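[Help] Beginner question about ligand-bound structures

Sorry if this is basic. My supervisor gave me a protein sequence and a SMILES string for magnesium ion and asked me to "get the holo structure". I don't really know what that means in practice or what format the answer should be in. Inputs are pasted below exactly as I got them.
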Amino acid sequence: MLEIKGLRTVFPTSKGEVVAAKDVDLTMEPGQIIGLVGESGCGKSVTMLSILRLVPHPGRIVSGQVLFFGEDLVKKSPLEMRRIRGKEIAMIFQDPMTTLNPVFKVGEQIRESLRIHGIMSEQAGSWPWGARYRLQAERDKVIQLMEEVGIPSPQARYHEYPHQFSGGMQQRALIAIALACEPRLLLADEPTTALDVTIQAQILDLLRRINETHGTGIILVTHDLGVAAEFCEEIVVMYAGQIVERGPTDEVIQRPLHPYTRGLLRSIPRITREKRKLEPIPGVVPDLANLKYNCAFYDRCDAALPKCEHDELELRDVGGGRLVRCVLY
Ligand SMILES: Nc1ncnc2c1ncn2[C@@H]1O[C@H](COP(=O)(O)OP(=O)(O)OP(=O)(O)O)[C@@H](O)[C@H]1O
Ligand SMILES: [Mg+2]
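Answer (accepted):
No worries, everyone starts somewhere. Holo just means with the ligand present. The predicted complex, written as structure tokens, is below.
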């Protein structure tokens, strides 16, 4: 369904060029759920925005391909992209309150996404429906969508404004907007980060149900390896703009290969009998405009060797569906 090859997205800054996505390769089958994890600033959002060609100015994609069912999205015209966004590939953005428009009723905002892509008029075909009937059909569909994402009393809440919705309900409304056109791929950028743990679990349940009933492929972006482990079949770990490890979830959790993944695992709390100290990864994500070593993780790595400084690094296939970018393998 999706095949990203050698994607490179850069931001020119006063300190030099920041390579926010550095030769990203990623493949995904229809209906799959993939978790993209990594610390803040490692390029997760930029990679998602690159897929939809929504990288904010002055950032730009300098090379690579984003094949969606074999068609390269990097080469599409702005008009073609507008048709694909929302209809074929939808995205849920990081912060619900800034994505919903505060001055429009929530129901109307969901209806807007149906209208833009002409969903109801398509289904109505050549029926001699007046505009009023179509409006009613669209409203019915919106109510049905609101029900599906678990917004209680949708008839009444259709007419409410975003500020009357709680954080969790706003997120559900955004998911309804994303689902309106039944996209084949859903990019969910930290959809639960702003929510408390109970609501977080409900939203993840909802996403899983959508995946099961509609076969929607999902890329879940999260900085929380624990969330990705529970929710995704495969985990992709990103560091400093690069994918450093990929593999089936159970394998990655039980036998992490890259020292960065091992560090991430040691820093998440787990309920076990034995007391275990949480170990943060020492240091911080390096300045992307000024990378000193060939391996961006070199100066934080507990397994670093002298050759890590200079040796060429590629994402290597180590068998069993696992890929890792590290000289140790
Ligand atoms: N508008 C911008 N201008 C300049 N640099 C940017 C811009 N947006 C992103 N970047 C650079 O791209 C890098 C990756 O940013 P991105 O938003 O993809 O991180 P992220 O992994 O999504 O982090 P978070 O978990 O905080 O959302 C940042 O470290 C930053 O250096
Ligand atoms: Mg982000």
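A couple of things worth pointing out: Residues 11, 13, 18, 20, 38, 40-46, 56, 59, 223, 288 surround adenosine-5'-triphosphate (ligand 1) (CB under 6 Å). The chain has two domains: 1-88+184-329, 99-182. Feel free to follow up in the thread.
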